[in-house]
Amino acid sequence: MNLALDTPLPPGALCDDAAGVLAPAFAATRTLWWHGAEADMATDKTGAVTHWHPRSGEITMRPTKPNEGNGTLGFAGDLTGLQCRHGAQSGLFADRAIPGDAATATIAIRWYVAEGDEARTLFTLNTAVHAAEEGGGNYLFLSADASTLTSKDDANTVETSLPLPNSDAPRMAIVSLHAGRMALQLLGADRAEARSPTPILTGPASLFLGCRNQRPRLVKTLGGALILDAWLWPGRALLHSDTDEDRALLTALHRYRLWSEDAA
After folding, report:
1. Exposed/middle/buried for 44, CB within 10 Å: 0-12, 13-18, 19+?
2. Which residues pair with 172 in a beta bridge?
3. Could you tell me the residue range of the domain that residue 149 belongs to?
4. For the domain that residue 63 is a member of, what is the CATH number?
5. Is there a domain that residue 14 lies in?
6. Which of 157 and 16 is assigned the larger pLDDT?
7. C-alpha dist (Å) from residue 165 to 147, 173, 206, 215
């Protein structure tokens, strides 16, 4: 039986390589994207990830100092990514991923967690690591327990959360900052916003995956997520923008979620 459609299909609708189809769109907008393909993740002989090369952009992720081989190349069915160990510093970071001002930025992440485990800290956008000499700075993190997705900053100026439905499937979330505004969206589900009277982050920032900083403490914040993809858009607040280019990027993320889940 043949199936015929008389309407145009979006790029990639008949393709099982969602990442390959979307890569040019992300590259054209200077997106930083770390994709959990085995070819993009260099490992040592133990399987520990030593470098996560970007699919788009030029910043390579490297292990944090306390991560002594805990972050490994992980698999779950057809899924591949950075496997974090519950209670162990397994993080990677992109040093000065935002070299200018982190007041406006968007971070997206796609992850999977096995039944009975928790993702806990998924990512952190951290300006404090660059303001330590002046004693200032702040950081914003996204974390997930068994039922709730939470985005908040270390200075306790903003916090918002969303219910996290039980699902044995990858999840994908976006956080946007625009001065004192923060928006959080779980793709395919809810959205929430919060406001601060002052900019939440200022100055240069590093992006951390699976942890909050370079320190070995905060063990209770470290979970067992398999981090599949991470994106960063410095200077773009996708969830606060109505420009055609920013709306197109959001549409691309929604399509990527649908295509990649179908392929998996």
Report:
1. exposed
2. 110
3. 40-263
4. 2.60.120.200
5. no
6. 157
7. 6, 13, 30, 31
Strand pairing of 226-234 and 205-209? unpaired
Write out pLDDT tens, residues 127-144: 998 886 555 789 999 999
Residue written as token pair 């070299």: 99
Question: Residue 119's CB: how many other CB atoms inside 10 A?
Answer: 26
Contact 232, 205 (CB under 8 A): no
Does the predicted TM-score (pTM) go above 0.85? yes
What's the pLDDT score for residue 134? 54
Assigned domain for 251 exists: yes
Residues 6+ apart with CB under 8 A from 20: none
Res. 6: pLDDT tops 80: no
Closest Cα partner for 89 from 74, 71, 112? 71
Closest Cα to residue 19, out of 3, 33, 32?
Answer: 33
31 located within any domain: no
Per the structure, how many domains does the chain have? 1
- Asked if residue 204 lies in contact with residue 96, where contact means CB atoms within 8 angstroms, the answer is yes
pLDDT of residue 114: 92
What CA–CA distance (Å, rounded) separates 97 from 198?
22
Q: Is residue 116 part of a domain?
A: yes
Nearest-angstrom CA–CA distance, 262 and 264: 5
CA 221: distance to chain centroid?
16
